[in-house]
Please model this.
Amino acid sequence: MSDHPLDPPPLPTKRQELLARLASNPRYDLAVVGGGATGLGVALDAASRGLKVVLVEAQDFAKGTSSRSTKLVHGGVRYLAQGNISLVREALRERTTVLHSAPHIAQPLAFVMPCYRWWETPFYGLGLTLYDQLAGKAGLAKTEMLSSAQTQQLLPTAQTHGLRGGVKYWDGQFDDARLALAIARTAAQYGALLINYCRAEQLLYSEGQIAGMECTDTHTGTRYSIESRCVINATGVWVDALRERDGAANHAGRIAPVKPMVAPSQGVHLVVDSEFLQADVALMVPKTSDGRVLFAVPWLGKVILGTTDTPSKDLALEPTPLKEEADFILGESARYLRKAPTRADVKSVWVGLRPLVKHHDDEGATQKLSREHTVIVSRSGLVTVTGGKWTTYRVMAEDVLSACLERGLVETHPGSSTAQMTLVGAPPLAQSANNPTLRDGQGMHSYGTERAFVATLPGADRWIAPRLSEAMVRFAARYEYARTVEDVLARRSRLLFLDARLAGDVAPKVAEILAQELGGSPDVAEFLELSAHFLRVP
Model:
């Protein structure tokens, strides 16, 4: 297989054909439940090793946590401050892997930390120099200590009163939902069968051991039975639900009840217009009034403000931001930006749930719980993976496959090759340097080498919104697994996350095109309710 496993024309994702494959080939080497970053990474790793793989996702790919990050591919400056050197070193290595595998979707980004006390510039400068050293050859550029004038030049809207200087360092930025989609489509090119809107209903057993699962097409209600000795539970903050079903299964009393392993935490993000930052670098505050980290990140022509870290028991697909979370972000932004955004300036607000690994003898704030991933195998053979972060999704997948091999759930296969792999649409790095960036707000950059193909589809010159053409909707329906208006406006394009009101305005036109491509009548009313939710700042 070439370095670019998918060259135009791309693979169609006709749902009838995908479901026909599911019905006609019920036996797989490995079955994955969950279509977020972790599950998709496992599917790609396993399929690229030659395993027969199926993945089912109850909603859309990356519907949950994996589309709601702060859009950073990073080693974790915060974890460096906590002394977690091994996690930082691993993440820095994986940061480079992500940037190389998908340069059309993930790119370097400079961060500037404004300093208002005399000791901050040398103190944080030293810490970030260590960050560079941990990256080694995987470093992006050297950390620089800035004067007050240099800091103002890079951050023209930052508070100048008391400004003593700053520190500039480098990390990465990406479009999380589109990276998830690229991983899914690359896995499909290696032979994996991936189906969204297909819910895992129950696990199947033979002599007390996992033997497969049953799943249901949520659009038609059709039920399918999948045979597989190896089932991966990669459902993020929802992993405990499947673990409880496994633990409660009647296997002659040999399966004990399970303790929850996830302590969910929610992170809120507010999106405002670019005028509040007016920079192509991100502003980073290492320690806010309550000890958290705050970012103002330029992304797709807007600015993301966030994030919070609040314990949550709300496992809804659309969690609700709390008033104190919005107050915190807006209040801290006002301390560092001369023109402070207000609730009226917010174009979209979203909440992501983090699956923090729970240690049963630990108590306290979620910020202290582990971001490192955990892989466990139950007595029946159910493999559960959770925790971690987007940047290390590939390592998480490797660790899952290692656990499967050690337990004898899959046959021995060659080691992982994903560290050297490029994803669908990835241009050569030399060419990607000339591509539009994630800060520009351009609509076509994330298609990479497929941009020319998208331009051949009907409606390529008819723009529904500044970042969305009719052709892009057709491409989403034909080749990117899109089934609903939300799929297109939330994750194939990111309009819902950038400007929820505008997304609601164009929803009827998107529905019209989807009806032409897929048949049926997409539910616009349901999407309008969702877009109103994204506009609701408490």
